[in-house]
Amino acid sequence: MKMEILKQSENGKPLSTALLTLKDVVIARGDTRLLEQISLSFNTGEFTAIAGENGCGKSTLLTMLSGVEMPSAGTLTLGGKKISLLSANQLAKQRAVMAQSASTPFGFIADELLHLARYQYVESLEQKSRLIHGIAEQFDITHLLARNIQTLSGGERQRIFLAKSILQIIPGDQNESLEGKLLLLDEPTSALDLRHQKLVMQQLVALRAKGLCIICVSHDLNLISPYCDRLILLGEKQCLADGTPVQVLTTDMLSRCYHTQLNLIKNEQKQVFVTH
Amino acid sequence: MQLSSAAKHSNNLGDNSSDNPRDYSSDYRLTPVVLQLINARAQRKRIGMGILVVLLLICAYVGLTRGSLPIDIEQQLKYFISGVNTVESTVENTAANTTHWYVLSEIRLPRVIMTMLIGALLAVSGCAMQGLVRNPLADPGLIGIAGGAAAAAALSMTIVPPLIPALESIWVAMWAFGGALLSVWTVLRFSNGPQGVSVAALILAGVAINALTGTVIGAISYVASDDALRQISYWTMGSLAGASWTLCGLIALAGLVAFTGLMKSRNALNLLALGEKEAAYMGLNVTRYKHWVLWLVAFSVALATALCGIIGFVGLVVPHMCRAIFGVNHKVLIPASALMGALLLMVADTLARTLFVPMEIPIGIVTSAVGAPFFLYLLWQQRRIFGGGV
């Protein structure tokens, strides 16, 4: 595991570009210790997928990475600064989170919700609308903007919340680089149809190319592994594997992680897919 | 090498042209239509606000003219502008005009203004409270304001009467205000954990405090004299009869502070309505804003309750109605609630004064009698929404 990080740093990605680092982090929920002493680093312009069994601490890890809850032990730094020292405001402009099963008890209009995402930016309403419409088009939600969130389907809502979290961190000028920004996603594609799964993945890759660091929890390894740069498997209270999807996805590793026998198919592009 | 995995992927899974996401969205390029919808909604809201203002003015006019002494406003204005020398000025006319003018300027006008201010204050507080706890069924009474005020008022009327009997109303108001704040403080004490104020604990602590204050009132009622008992029950039903220009000024000041404070935190309220975690993700200092909004609401409602007794249902029903008409964005919801609250309390108070002239019904009875059935009607209309688990 440590070898992987070392190798990456030799491959022209020095460790100093690490945007988010965890050092000896212990994560607990209640009395259960979910993850023991993990150390990881995530780089600018890197798309990382995190997978693992139900209840292994993926979502809790994501919450810790977001900085709104502190880990039980260990240090967490974002852009070289301890995350607990950043103000809520600074943090919100630097990292966005899309939580699992995002919904609201009050029926906001989609357009209002997206405006809220940029409430801390000082910019004209026109500029805000322009940004919102740009993102809305990218995620195919333009036709939903005037709808009440509560009346939307799960997949439509998911796309709106994804667009909302991206709007929270993008700079006013869409061509500006996204270096230093962090996007944390918790199963963003779980309710999407095939077309929108593909659309969302392509948009994420496009954002990654602009320098955005994406960390995405997902169970859909077949969907995410062709797109992501790095796959982390969590299990046995630690990082079981960390590397490119092809390196990580082996039958041994999968059976160790998921406690069941799974088969792999390789295509001519050397991409690996999991079957039963 | 890894950066090109998307390109690799698209080469792999078919032709490049269909992989461009913009091709898909061209089917849905309905931006003008969507914009139209959004603008139409904004237009509807503006019209709704206009209607509310007009209705409020009409009600204020009716409230000023009707009562145990009907007053002709036009005549009074003429009298005011031209002094005593009205065209058909006779001795009786002048005397009548003076009486009418006194009733209008010193009794009815302050009462109408205070009614509107209290209605707006209660409604805005209810609106903030519901947004804060993310439950459209919450009202400021939830955190023990009404209970604490009533218990302290009952105490001040029986066990600790004022030293100077003439100052009784001020004495009772001070006790009620203190009692309300004390119970809010207690509720907050119990709901404040290491993770900040927990909404569930807030509601439960409020229920407990309300039960406790109910017991205090019950015990006092049991030992109180008949006169004091009558006074206590009259107080808990609320009344705006004590209106004066001084109180108007006080309420206007509190109202201004509460309204501007809540309008300034409208985005915070919107974010809190999305959920506390979501609000924290989006950069809100959740604990700070929760305390700020809670205390703002507590002070406003405690003041209103101390001066007018318990006026129920305005803080509960009005934001609910406004949400149905104006949507959930607090930018519109707060001013709309203020207008609607002023309007409703104005109607209720005019009814309370005029239904059984010269007798006056306590305002709390009118608001509950009108508010409760209306609220049931709203629930009936929206039971599908509430069935969905609010």
Automatic annotation (TrEMBL), chain A:
> Which InterPro entries does the entry link to?
AAA+_ATPase, ABC_transporter-like_ATP-bd, ABC_transporter-like_CS, P-loop_NTPase
The ABC transporter domain, residue ranges: 20-261
- Organism of this sequence: Alteromonas portus
Q: Name one GO molecular function term.
A: ATP binding
* Regions that span the bilayer: none
> Among its keywords, does the record have Nucleotide-binding?
yes
SMART domains, per database record = AAA
User: Which Gene3D superfamilies does the UniProt entry name for this protein?
Assistant: P-loop containing nucleotide triphosphate hydrolases
Q: Give the protein's recorded name.
A: ATP-binding cassette domain-containing protein
**Assigned keywords, A-Z:** ATP-binding, Nucleotide-binding, Translocase, Transport
- Protein's job: Part of the ABC transporter complex HmuTUV involved in hemin import. Responsible for energy coupling to the transport system.
Q: By its UniProt entry, which SUPFAM superfamilies does this protein fall under?
A: P-loop containing nucleoside triphosphate hydrolases
Automatic annotation (TrEMBL), chain B:
Topology class, membrane = Multi-pass membrane protein
Looking up Pfam families in the UniProt record yields: FecCD
Question: Which segments cross the bilayer?
Answer: 47-64, 109-129, 141-164, 170-188, 200-223, 243-262, 292-320, 332-351, 363-380
Q: Where in the cell is it found?
A: Cell membrane
Q: Which domain of life is it from?
A: Bacteria
GO BP annotations, alphabetical order: siderophore-iron import into cell
Q: Which InterPro entries match?
A: ABC_BtuC-like (IPR037294), ABC_transptr_permease_BtuC (IPR000522)
Molecular function terms in GO for this entry? transmembrane transporter activity
Q: Where is the composition biased (Polar residues)?
A: 1-19
Task: Tell me where it mainly resides.
Answer: membrane
Q: Does the keyword Transmembrane apply?
A: yes
Q: Identify the GO cellular component terms for this protein.
A: plasma membrane
Q: Where is this region: Disordered?
A: 1-25
Give the record's keywords alphabetically: Cell membrane, Membrane, Transmembrane, Transmembrane helix, Transport
The record's family statement is: Belongs to the binding-protein-dependent transport system permease family. FecCD subfamily.
- What PANTHER family does this protein's entry cite? ABC TRANSPORTER PERMEASE PROTEIN MJ0876-RELATED (PTHR30472:SF25), FERRIC ENTEROBACTIN TRANSPORT SYSTEM PERMEASE PROTEIN (PTHR30472)
Which protein, by its recorded name, is this? Iron ABC transporter permease
